[in-house]
């Protein structure tokens, strides 16, 4: 058995990203070192039970003749080296396990954050769907060249907001007519839903070649 046999290699897994297989390899090497330490202690035990510190000379300072001095010294030297190796690899195992644990915690935190973000996004989408403003009237016709046509109103547009009129305060088309009469020449914000999408328009009630100030027919929704 030579000095430094089975020592932890310089390229230990702690230098990079640690995997479960790296930890398993470290544990395998640790167990090998422990087996070698045990084997060397058995060598000492076979030599009259000599341990790591018992003297190898007799009372007259002569080398003991009842033990194999070479085997004892070699076993002691190997044990000392292997114990250092064992201490080093135990540190590597501890650090590798710590890295794995920290990475698992980071992954768990990321997964929770993503799940929370997805839940919030889904909840927001549902809230937007629930809070979608309801239309109170519908565009039945639009005359070419009229203020309504110029503003971009189209047939079947569902009106959500017409100036100050909305679902909350709409009672009849007289509300819309009153707003139009008081807003001649002034832009009105009109919000419509067209094929499921919301559109913001600016309509200026104006006298034109046709009838009325808008040039469109609006009917209330039941």
TrEMBL record:
Stored SMART domains: PDZ
Record-level GO BP terms: proteasome regulatory particle assembly
Domain PDZ: 126-196
Keywords in alphabetical order: Chaperone, Proteasome
InterPro entries: Nas2_N, PDZ, PDZ_6, PDZ_sf, PSMD9
GO cellular component labels: cytoplasm; nucleus; proteasome complex
Pfam families assigned to the protein according to its UniProt record, in alphabetical order: Nas2_N, PDZ_6
Keyword field contains Chaperone: yes
Function: Acts as a chaperone during the assembly of the 26S proteasome, specifically of the base subcomplex of the PA700/19S regulatory complex (RC). During the base subcomplex assembly is part of an intermediate PSMD9:PSMC6:PSMC3 module, also known as modulator trimer complex; PSMD9 is released during the further base assembly process.
Subunit organization: Interacts with PSMC3. Part of a transient complex (modulator) containing PSMD9, PSMC6 and PSMC3 formed during the assembly of the 26S proteasome.
Name of the protein: 26S proteasome non-ATPase regulatory subunit 9
């Amino acid at each position: 058995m030579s000095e430094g046999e089975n020592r932890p290699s310089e390229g230990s897994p702690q230098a990079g990203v640690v995997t479960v297989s790296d930890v398993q390899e470290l544990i395998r090497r640790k167990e090998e070192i422990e087996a070698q330490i045990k084997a060397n202690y058995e060598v000492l035990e076979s030599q009259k039970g000599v341990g790591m510190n018992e003297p190898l000379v007799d009372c007259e300072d002569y080398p003991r003749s009842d033990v194999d001095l070479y085997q004892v010294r070699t076993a002691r030297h190997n044990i000392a080296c292997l114990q250092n190796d064992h201490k080093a690899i135990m540190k590597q195992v501890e650090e590798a396990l710590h890295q794995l644990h920290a990475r698992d915690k980071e992954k768990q935190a990321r997964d929770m954050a993503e799940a929370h973000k997805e839940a919030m996004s889904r909840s927001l989408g549902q809230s937007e769907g629930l809070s979608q403003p309801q239309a109170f009237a519908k565009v039945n016709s639009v005359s070419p060249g009229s203020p309504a046509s110029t503003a971009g109103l189209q047939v079947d547009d569902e009106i959500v907001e017409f100036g100050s009129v909305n679902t909350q305060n709409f009672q009849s088309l007289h509300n819309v007519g009153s707003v139009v009469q008081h807003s001649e020449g002034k832009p009105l914000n009109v919000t419509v839903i067209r094929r499921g999408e919301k559109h913001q328009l600016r309509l200026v009630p104006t006298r034109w070649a046709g009838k009325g100030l808008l040039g469109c027919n609006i009917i209330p929704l039941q």
